[in-house]
Amino acid sequence: MGRRLLLLVPALVVIIGVSGCGSGSSASSSAPATWRVVSLGDSIPVGGDDCGHCKTYTDLFGAWIQKTTGHRVVVENLSQHDNLTAARMAQELPQDSGRTQAVASADVVLLDIGFNDTPWNSIDDACDGDHGFFDGNPKASWTALLGPCLQSELHRYHANLDKILAEIDSLRAGKPTAVLLTTQYSDFGGPPGHSCCPAIATKVAAQVKVGFNKVACEVARAHHARCVDLLHPFNGPDGTTWPGNLIGPDGTHPSAAGHRRIAELLEASGVAPSASATPSPDAVWLAHADVRSS
What we know:
It is a single chain. By secondary structure, this protein is α/β, with parallel strands linked by helices. Helices cover 32% and strands 14% of the residues. It has seven helices and seven strands; from the N terminus they run ββαβααβαβαβααβ. Strands 3-2-4-5-6 form a five-stranded parallel beta sheet, sandwiched between helices. Strands 1-7 form a two-stranded antiparallel ribbon. Helix 1 packs across helix 7 and helix 2 (86-92) packs parallel to helix 4 (148-172). The longest helix is centred in the middle third of the chain and has 25 residues, at 148-172. Mean pLDDT is 81; it is low at 1-29 and 272-294.
């Protein structure tokens, strides 16, 4: 999608019990339940041509859960390579029976949305309307993105992301669910001689990404989801460093190495086999942070 594209908080450990065959079953006859990992979002999680048809972070994370827990894991990557925004997702998700059914049956939901909501990608933002900054729009400058129009866009993003996570809440209907929201990294800057934009653009973009990511984590926290930071692992302490080999040839989407890095960050986010729970013939346990449960 070119440059038009694209979530948690202190750990609260909760134990999910998965029923076995009943009190009379034995360890040898109680098979772990199948868990479902569903990935929703824009083109960042898609993979395909963007990373040389690599194993995506959704695939890698699902495989890690299966290896670590002994559960069979089924992965569904339902991310969209069509310039999906949070506004469109908030509107379309409740109406998409395939995605709603997938979320309703998911034990783990991975969510990535926001890249296309930033002013330089959005076609209806308060900063430059339907003109992108890459079009040389004379109405605004890069520094204007840090003014009042950014606050308008952050407010809109907050409202739409809240709708998306509320819909996931509703679809899961109180069933224990791990929801992990990956934040945005920056695709500004670039190797020497290949930078897309003036130096001021890289600095402003980092500050805009910080704003969007702060909103994302606030909304995620409110819905007991886990926010996974990508900006600093990809772009360094101030968010302005080029991600290097974590970005694919198109200069925006993650490479195979980028997908592996995101999978590692998901693995480190708090989802892990429980060290405190003792598995029994009737239950297999998973401990992780901020699990939605009734």
